[in-house]
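for the recovery benchmark. tokens below, seq after
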């Protein structure tokens, strides 16, 4: 049975548990679990990080831990009872773990590794804490280290700052808000600005001396030297080096390392140096030969210098190599360092080019104890301490030091009978009172232990040596008396013996007889002669002699006359001994009572360090004198005491205050002193008002704290001694003293008067007296003293008076004192404190101090609230609210509204921020203390509604300030949450007042608006968006505060419902803010807030009959809010469902549904747009999405400003993607909204304020520039003309000239520069996973330069990485449409150009034609062949039909996007006969073009013409055209198809025409063919005659002969009467393409050797359809050469040509072998004919005329190369004039796709069946309309089993005829003629011009430059027959600008439905 657990509540998983049992809970090792129930060895519970999943687990897997349970029961919370630092470590490390992995993903390697080390370090420290074996101090250090590491990691990862007290996290509810703020501020400051250390230390580590001349031992001395004052600052550090230059004792690090301690900040300057002296130990001369003498001398070697300031910037890890300099003359040695500093180069030089001293130098900061903690290794391994000369900046009590420093300065010696000067060495000894040498007390410096003696330097032959050597004598205090120092002088001989001969000595006693030590300074000592060492053994003999020249008796002329002297400088640094006689006189006052007065007077002149040395003795002396002679010396003793007390205020001696405190508590014995002290103090206070000089009185008052301490302690001692006698007298004295104080404080003075300054001095020290008074008086008495004293201060003081600031400082100290903490005294002091505080805050003065006082006051209230004094606290809160709440709000407003200063005032700004933060904390603390009763009292206290209104406005405004992001630093989440909790609590109280007082007839819009505005800001705060937080942080916040957004949202809804009819005041103003609230991703909040929109719609409907305002505002705000990242798909669905449900029963339901639908659709687009914009690079998705949104704003919402904004966003995207043409079209959208007027336009986006004309001019120029960059020069020319017209109308000839030149340059570029011809691809996006603007739609896309199908397909798959590429071209079914996936269907399509008139003119250069082929394209075509009915195995052309799909776009390409949606699909079928006509027409056209090019010398190479002639003639000879004759000229066909009579006639004409053109072509070819090609030409001529005979042509028919063959520029033309042929726009295409399965043909244009039989054989070998390039390089022709196909047939297509043709014996064996072997090869291995250049060569692609019309596009990716051919227009359909094919698709590497499924069977007449998804009216042609043919050559498709769903649809191709021929599409093709309308006979005269076929119900883009040039559909001239002269051709270029604004009219005057007007936009453009 499961039993709820009582104690077992919390545990840690010891081992992983898989949870394989029923209801088992899987556990990972280390998980923490909360246990709910137990049963026989099993627990039931959940993992804390996933509380929703509960299950069972074994008890043995769990380690139980103690825990505290909150809220016992269903919702209980378990808190582990463990160290809070451990808890924090655990949770923090968990949070870091996830973020740490993300660092790796983001490639932030440095932080990743640093954090890894810190996490390991924290884990190790956590282990130590958990083990619990640490000492208390060590535990403290470890916790401090842990918290420092946690804070570092949180800061690096951008996590929250954690408030802590004593290393533990603070619960914000447990402390006051003001305390919380102080903690946060303290930690923030600590993090931001570490306080600079005042104490510094220099670490020195000597490594080695490098020199080439070593060989002797060295001594190195370091000291710090002040270059400004020319004196050493420290004692010396001494290191011995061996002969190699390395430290002599490497194992003893303290001998090589030292710390120069106690450097002040003033010592870290440029002119403070580290000076190094190097001394060698050896022979007298460095270069002397070794002699027998073993005597060693200390001789100078060199000196090195480095500035301390250089160490501040140097890298501490680097060693320093110091250059060592030697002095030029030894006599300069004493000042060599000064010479180096002064750079006196003549006095020193480098001691050797390689000599250098290697040392490590590092400056360390902080006190010595801090260093011991931070650099533990340094101190444990050993480091010597080198002290400063003298005391440090701060003297610590208890510091013991007794060092005498003696510097050997100089000497003056006589020659002593020598011819040369002496080599003098001094030996120093320290002797005690008994004359014994003190062992180990003579030290050369720190580092080495002291010795018994010290030997000085020896300066060679110098009778006036100057050593400047400092030695240290650390003498114990008790040995000082009677000790002396002896200096022995010896001459060092340089002779062989090397003996040292004593010639004199000096001495100096260390203490005088009166107890004073040797005074600091220079002493000139007497040199006493002596010869024998023995004479010095008894020191008593010479100690009686004078030692100094200053104390020689006047009668001793002998010593006075001596010239020999020795100078030393002594300096004593002692904490116990003094050199001051006055100090000794004072301490020995009883011995000399007569000197007391003098000694007391001189006390002020004694150095402070001497006084603090003897502080206790001095105080005993003073109080001793006071007790004995108070009347006589009372005032002097008082003044001396004041002097000593004030001396301790000095920062140098402040640490001696505890010494004085200890003295007062423990040693002071003046029980009677209090009377005299009170009396003198009162005497001084009474004299304040009248005294002229206040300085001394101010010194007295400054010391009043300690004077009171002495008074109180004296009184206590007296009471103890006498049992409390004279108590009343004492109280009276104190009362009188305070009366005097109050009197002098009450004086009103000017701010600068001396009395005011004295008042300020007293107030500074007054709070320190409280604690002393409390030792004798009761709390209430002392509080009374303080209240009356502070109350006596003058109320009105000048603003600039320093007393004001001091008054507040006094108040602050009062509030922080123990007196105020006591509730009993606080109620007495609070009124006076509040009065002073209120006065200052009202005048906005000294706000920093006001904030500090208020903070302290409110901190105490919080503490008391947790105690027992609730009623007292409540009363205090009442007082504070009444006095300060209003002024506190005003102060926060005042500070927040101050203008932000710049420059030097930034510091003030920071102070403002800090002060504002403190006031905010105070306000929050106060509000948090307020209960219901307080709020009721507060609201009732307002006398009028206006006052209440002002208060509410004020507090709402302040709350808005509090929730600003900049209010607190970004990582202060804890503080922000506390703030929000207080705000929402307060708002809940105040909303009731709002309802009661400001509704109905008392309604006040401003208050309600302020309330709503605050609520909205509150909900939208970043710190409340819990979704962005980690799960653990979110859980903590929800447990502590709940979701405050939902609480506020419910309050908003409640208040809104109360408004009633006043809601109309907030429509539409609050729509935007409320919308922002609903976009917050919190479901409960959305459910509460969205219904408000229904309410708004309802009230707006009541008022206006519609809700246009609601709609407009919703739409405006949605765009800006969603672009900021707010909102999601869930919101869209929720918005839609909630509002639709709400309006179900409304009368205005229909319009409501419309609005909701509009807003929902906008959301869909905005969400898609936002998702697309998150991607990195610009791609089609971004552009397409922007286009979709832009069109939505224009067409559906009619929002002009948003429309223009998105125009510019789209423009920027195009520029970034280098789509310059599209960028131009996009900018034209805005350009066309503007007029050429002078109306002023406001500043908008990046446009300045300017006139409409100027902006339109700027736009024109920008667009022209982009058209130029996009090589769309024709469009640029139109705009240039328009601008030129404007300049001309304003007579601005300068700009007109520039514009004409620009226009001319564009013409030049058209003619001179090459343009790449783009491919076009149809893309279908199917499935629900696509964005809304793409979903289940098809588009045609203009490819990038050089982009082929495979590359385009890959690009699309990259843009949509989750998409699946469909492998067929059939329209998908509904399962694909509705699938939760993405499907892409891509294949190439062929453009159908609109401008046929230009394309059909023979004289128009290809450079010009290329523009019209690929620009302004609305329609695209895709063809698919199929068999209808029974297939004739002998001649498959009888049943081979073509299914032609025409796609019509919503806008023409190129346009504002690279892709546009397909608006309509038309499906038509082309009959076999019509296809045959198109094939022959196209071949004829190609032949004409090549002949023309050859004649006009446009072709550099005649090969294209040769190959084309060869292909046509060779195929015709082998029966190519015969296939058409067999199929269509037989009697059966004519009988069965009487309606095709005309077409049969037309086919016959074309066949004769082809023969005629061939004959002329051969004539031209003969003239230009090179010599090596003559045999081929001869063969062609022979075969041509065979061809004519095979066609039965003996001579040309009359209609051919009737008019001679005309060629413009020598090109063949047909007669005028013939129906004009359409020049195929593909005629100039010069790039060969092949699919993956195609291969280059070998012997491409050989004779008939390549028969169709071979084709069959090859196809059977390869098993797949292979085609060569020539299918796409040659126009198909039904010539006899079709039997000579180089292309293999499909395995599904067998030859239907006659057997004689298939088995043509003319095919040589080598050709057969070549074909068969090629067919067997892989596509990569097959050889390429040398005749044709590489089809991928861009140069070839860009020069179509070099190859001629030799390429055929493949538009169906499902077909192999032979099947993908671009159809050409039929020359006998007038409609086809306008629909020549323009584009080329290059299927290099094209993907093969699955077969097309079989079509449903249908019946219908040939060429007249049409299937169209959206019917379009077709213009009628005078001739019979046809389907654009798509018929293979009769010898190319030899299929016996061609079915519509075959995997590959292809045929066998000849070089002359393509089974998938390319032909232009006519929209009219496939339409039936109306009944009774007869087709025009083919021989009819040229019919009248017909209009271009236009789309119906289309909105032509207003930005189309093409439409600018074609405002109405101009009559398109009839396609010219070969006999029409070129003069009649219309101009190819666009018309002049004057035609631009004409109406779009047809010839009959009716408007053209092809060009409807765009939806007009409201003319708000003048503002934009």
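predicted aa per position
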């Amino acid at each position: 049975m499961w039993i709820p657990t009582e104690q077992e509540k919390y545990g840690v998983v010891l081992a992983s548990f898989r949870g394989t049992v029923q209801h088992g809970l899987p556990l990972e090792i280390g998980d923490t679990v909360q246990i709910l129930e137990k049963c026989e060895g099993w627990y039931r519970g959940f993992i804390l990080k996933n509380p929703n999943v509960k299950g069972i687990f074994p008890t043995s897997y769990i380690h139980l831990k103690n825990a505290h349970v909150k809220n016992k029961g269903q919702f209980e919370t378990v808190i582990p009872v463990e160290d809070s630092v451990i808890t924090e470590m655990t949770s923090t490390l968990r949070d870091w773990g996830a973020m740490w992995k993300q660092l790796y993903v983001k490639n932030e390697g440095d932080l990743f590794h640093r954090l890894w080390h810190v996490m390991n370090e924290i884990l190790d420290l956590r282990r130590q804490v958990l083990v619990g074996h640490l000492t208390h101090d060590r535990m403290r250090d470890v916790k401090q280290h842990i918290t420092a590491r946690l804070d570092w990691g949180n800061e690096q990862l951008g996590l929250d700052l954690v408030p802590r007290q004593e290393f533990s996290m603070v619960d914000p509810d447990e402390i006051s808000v003001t305390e919380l703020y102080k903690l946060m501020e303290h930690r923030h400051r600590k993090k931001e600005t570490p306080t600079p250390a005042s104490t510094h230390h220099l670490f020195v580590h000597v490594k080695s001396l490098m020199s080439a001349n070593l060989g002797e031992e060295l001594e190195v001395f370091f000291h710090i030297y002040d270059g400004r004052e020319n004196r050493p600052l420290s004692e010396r550090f001494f290191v011995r080096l061996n002969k190699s230059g390395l430290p002599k004792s490497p194992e003893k690090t303290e001998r090589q390392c030292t710390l120069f301690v106690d450097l002040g900040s003033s010592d870290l300057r440029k002119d403070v140096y580290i000076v190094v002296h190097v001394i060698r130990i050896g022979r007298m001369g460095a270069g002397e030969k070794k002699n027998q003498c073993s005597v060693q001398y200390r001789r100078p070697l060199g000196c090195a210098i480095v500035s301390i300031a250089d160490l501040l910037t140097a890298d501490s890890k680097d060693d320093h190599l110091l250059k060592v300099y030697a002095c030029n003359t030894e006599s300069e040695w004493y000042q060599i360092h000064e010479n180096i500093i002064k750079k006196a180069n003549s006095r020193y030089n480098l001691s050797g080019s390689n000599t250098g001293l290697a040392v490590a130098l590092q400056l360390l900061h902080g006190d010595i104890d801090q260093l011991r903690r931070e650099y533990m290794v340094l101190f444990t391994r050993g480091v010597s301490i080198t002290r400063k000369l003298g005391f440090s900046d701060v003297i610590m009590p208890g510091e013991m030091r007794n060092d005498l420093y003696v510097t050997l300065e100089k000497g003056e010696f006589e020659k002593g009978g020598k011819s040369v000067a002496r080599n003098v060495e001094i030996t120093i000894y320290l002797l005690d009172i008994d004359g014994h040498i003190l062992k180990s007390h003579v030290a050369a410096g720190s580092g080495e232990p002291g010795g018994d003696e010290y030997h000085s330097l020896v300066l060679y032959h110098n009778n006036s040596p100057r050593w400047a050597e400092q030695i240290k004598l650390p003498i114990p205090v008790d040995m000082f008396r009677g000790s002396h120092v002896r200096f022995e002088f010896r001459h060092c001989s340089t002779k062989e013996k090397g003996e040292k001969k004593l010639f004199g000595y000096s001495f100096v006693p260390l203490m005088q007889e009166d107890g004073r030590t040797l005074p600091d300074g220079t002493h000139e000592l007497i040199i006493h002669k002596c010869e024998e060492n023995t004479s010095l053994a008894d020191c008593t003999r010479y100690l009686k002699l004078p030692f100094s020249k200053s104390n020689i008796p006047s009668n001793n002329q002998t010593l006075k006359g001596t010239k020999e002297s020795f100078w030393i400088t002594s300096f004593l640094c002692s904490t116990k001994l003094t050199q001051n006689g006055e100090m000794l006189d004072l301490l020995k006052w009883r011995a000399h009572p007569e000197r007391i007065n003098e000694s007391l007077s001189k006390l002020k002149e004694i150095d402070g360090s001497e006084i603090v040395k003897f502080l206790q003795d001095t105080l005993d002396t003073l109080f001793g004198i006071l007790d004995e002679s108070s009347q006589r010396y009372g005032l002097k003793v008082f003044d001396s005491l004041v002097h000593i007390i004030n001396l301790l205020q000095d920062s140098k001696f402040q640490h001696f205050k505890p010494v004085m405190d200890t003295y007062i508590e423990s040693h002071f014995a003046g029980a009677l002193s209090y009377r005299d002290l009170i009396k003198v103090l009162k005497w001084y206070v009474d004299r304040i008002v009248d005294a002229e000089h206040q300085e001394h009185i101010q010194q007295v008052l400054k010391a009043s704290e300690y004077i009171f301490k002495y008074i109180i302690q004296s009184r206590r001692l007296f009471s103890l001694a006498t049992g409390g006698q004279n108590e009343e007298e004492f109280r009276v004295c104190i009362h009188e003293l305070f009366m005097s104080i109050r009197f002098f404080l009450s004086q009103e003075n000017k701010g600068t008067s001396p009395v005011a300054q004295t008042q300020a001095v007293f107030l500074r020290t007054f709070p320190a007296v409280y604690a002393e008074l409390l030792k004798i008086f009761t709390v209430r008495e002392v509080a009374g003293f303080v209240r009356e004293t502070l109350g006596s201060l003058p109320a009105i003081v000048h603003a600039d008076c320093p007393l004001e600031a001091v008054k507040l400082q006094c108040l602050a100290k009062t509030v922080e004192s123990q007196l105020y903490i006591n509730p009993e005294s606080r109620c007495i002091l609070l009124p006076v404190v509040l009065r002073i505080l209120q006065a200052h805050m009202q005048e906005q003065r000294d706000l920093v101090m006001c904030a500090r006082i208020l903070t302290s006051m409110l901190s105490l209230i919080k503490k008391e609230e947790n105690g027992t004094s609730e009623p007292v606290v409540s009363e205090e809160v009442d007082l504070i609210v009444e006095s300060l709440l209003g002024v506190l709000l005003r102060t926060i407003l005042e500070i927040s509204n101050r203008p932000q200063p710049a420059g030097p005032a930034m510091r003030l700004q920071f102070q403002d921020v800090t002060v504002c933060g403190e006031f905010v904390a105070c306000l929050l603390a106060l509000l948090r203390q307020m209960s219901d009763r307080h709020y009721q009292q507060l609201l009732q206290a307002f006398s009028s509604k206006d006052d209440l209104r002002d208060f509410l406005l004020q507090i709402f405004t302040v709350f808005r300030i509090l929730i600003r992001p900049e209010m607190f630093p970004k990582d202060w989440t804890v503080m922000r949450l506390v703030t929000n909790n207080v705000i929402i609590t307060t708002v809940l109280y105040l909303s009731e007042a709002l309802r009661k007082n400001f509704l109905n007839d008392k309604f006040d819009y401003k208050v309600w608006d302020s309330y709503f505005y605050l609520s909205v800001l509150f909900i939208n705060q970043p710190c409340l968006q819990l979704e962005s937080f980690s799960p653990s942080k979110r859980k903590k916040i929800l447990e502590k505060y709940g979701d405050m957004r939902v609480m506020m949202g419910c309050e908003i809804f409640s208040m809104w419902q109360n408004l009633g009819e006043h809601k109309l005041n907030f429509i539409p103003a609050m729509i935007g803010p409320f919308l922002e609230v609903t976009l917050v991703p919190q479901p409960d909040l959305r459910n509460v807030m969205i219904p408000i929109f229904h309410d708004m719609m309802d009230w707006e409907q009541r008022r206006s009959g519609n809700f246009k305002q609601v709609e407009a505002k919703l739409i405006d705000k949605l765009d800006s809010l969603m672009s900021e990242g707010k909102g999601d798909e869930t919101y869209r669905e929720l918005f839609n469902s909630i509002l639709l449900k709400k309006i179900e029963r409304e009368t205005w339901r229909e319009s409501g549904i419309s609005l909701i639908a509009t807003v929902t659709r906008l959301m869909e687009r905005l969400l898609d747009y936002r998702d697309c914009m998150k991607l990195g690079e610009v791609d089609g998705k971004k552009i397409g999405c922007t286009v979709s949104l832009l069109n939505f704003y224009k067409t559906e919402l009619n929002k002009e400003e948003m429309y223009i904004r998105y125009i510019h966003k789209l423009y920027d995207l195009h520029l970034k993607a280098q789509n310059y043409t599209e960028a131009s079209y996009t900018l034209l959208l805005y350009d066309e909204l503007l007029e050429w007027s002078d109306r002023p336009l406001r500043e908008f986006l990046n446009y300045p304020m300017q006139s409409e004309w100027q902006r339109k001019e700027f736009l024109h120029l920008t667009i022209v520039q982009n058209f130029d960059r996009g090589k769309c020069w024709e469009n640029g020319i139109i705009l240039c003309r328009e601008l030129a017209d404007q300049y001309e109308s304003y007579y601005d000839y300068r700009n007109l000239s520039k514009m004409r030149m620009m226009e001319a340059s564009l013409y030049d570029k058209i003619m001179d520069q090459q343009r790449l011809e783009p491919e076009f691809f149809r893309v279908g996006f199917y499935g629900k996973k696509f964005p809304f603007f793409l979903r289940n739609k098809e588009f045609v896309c203009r490819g990038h330069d050089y982009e082929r199908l495979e590359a385009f397909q890959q690009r699309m798959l990259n843009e949509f990485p989750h998409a699946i590429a469909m492998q067929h071209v059939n329209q998908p079914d509904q399962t694909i449409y509705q699938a939760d996936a993405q499907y892409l269907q891509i294949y190439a399509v062929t453009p159908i150009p609109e401008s046929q008139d230009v394309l059909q003119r023979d004289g128009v250069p290809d450079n010009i034609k290329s523009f019209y082929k690929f620009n302004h394209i609305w329609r695209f075509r895709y063809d698919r062949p199929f068999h209808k009915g029974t297939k004739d195995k002998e001649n498959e052309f009888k049943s081979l039909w073509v299914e032609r799909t025409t796609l019509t776009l919503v806008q023409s390409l190129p346009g504002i996007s690279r892709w546009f949606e397909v608006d309509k699909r038309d499906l038509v079928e082309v009959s076999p006969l019509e296809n045959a006509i198109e094939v022959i027409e196209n071949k004829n056209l190609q032949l004409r073009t090549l002949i023309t090019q050859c004649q006009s010398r446009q072709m550099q190479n005649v090969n294209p013409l040769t190959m084309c002639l060869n292909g046509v003639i060779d195929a015709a000879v082998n029966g190519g055209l015969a296939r058409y004759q067999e199929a269509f000229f037989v009697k059966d066909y004519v009988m069965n198809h009487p309606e095709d009579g005309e077409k049969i006639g037309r086919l016959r004409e074309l066949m004769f025409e082809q023969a005629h053109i061939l004959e002329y072509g051969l004539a031209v070819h003969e003239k230009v063919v090179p010599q090596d090609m003559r045999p081929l030409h001869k063969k062609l001529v022979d075969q041509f005659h065979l061809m004519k005979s095979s066609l039965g042509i003996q001579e040309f028919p009359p209609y051919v002969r009737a008019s001679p063959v005309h060629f413009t520029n020598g090109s063949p033309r047909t007669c005028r009467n013939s129906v004009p042929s359409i020049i195929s726009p593909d005629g100039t295409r010069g790039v060969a393409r092949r699919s993956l399965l195609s291969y280059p043909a070998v012997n491409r244009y050989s004779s008939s050797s390549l028969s169709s039989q071979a084709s069959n054989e090859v196809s059977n070998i390869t098993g797949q359809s292979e085609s060569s390039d020539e299918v796409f390089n040659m126009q198909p022709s039904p010539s006899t050469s079709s039997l000579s196909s180089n292309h293999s047939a499909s395995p599904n297509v067998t030859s239907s040509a006659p057997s004689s043709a298939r088995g043509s014996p003319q095919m040589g064996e080598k050709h057969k072998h070549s074909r068969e072997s090629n067919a067997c090869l892989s596509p990569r291995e097959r050889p390429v004919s040398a005749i044709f250049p590489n089809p991928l060569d861009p140069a070839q692609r860009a020069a179509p005329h070099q190859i001629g019309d030799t390429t055929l596009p493949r538009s169906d990716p499902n077909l192999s190369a032979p099947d993908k051919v671009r159809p050409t227009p039929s020359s006998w359909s007038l409609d086809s004039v306008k629909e020549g094919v323009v584009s080329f698709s290059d299927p290099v590497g094209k993907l093969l796709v699955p077969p097309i499924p079989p079509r449903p069977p249908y019946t219908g007449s040939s060429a007249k069946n049409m299937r169209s998804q959206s019917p379009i009216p077709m213009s009628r042609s005078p001739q019979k309309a046809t389907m654009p043919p798509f018929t293979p050559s009769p010898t190319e498709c030899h299929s016996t089993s061609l079915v519509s769903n075959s995997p590959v649809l292809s045929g066998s191709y000849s070089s002359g005829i393509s089974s998938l021929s390319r032909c232009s599409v006519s929209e009219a093709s496939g339409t039936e003629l109306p009944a009774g309308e007869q087709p025009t006979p083919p021989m009819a005269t040229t019919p009248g011009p017909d209009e271009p076929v236009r789309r119906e119900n289309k909105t032509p883009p207003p930005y189309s430059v093409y439409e600018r040039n074609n405002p109405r559909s101009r009559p398109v001239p009839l396609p010219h027959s070969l006999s029409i002269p070129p003069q009649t051709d219309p101009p190819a270029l666009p018309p002049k600008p004057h035609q631009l604004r004409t109406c779009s009219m047809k010839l009959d005057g009716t408007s053209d439905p092809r060009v409807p007007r765009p939806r007009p936009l409201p003319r708000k453009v003048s503002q934009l």
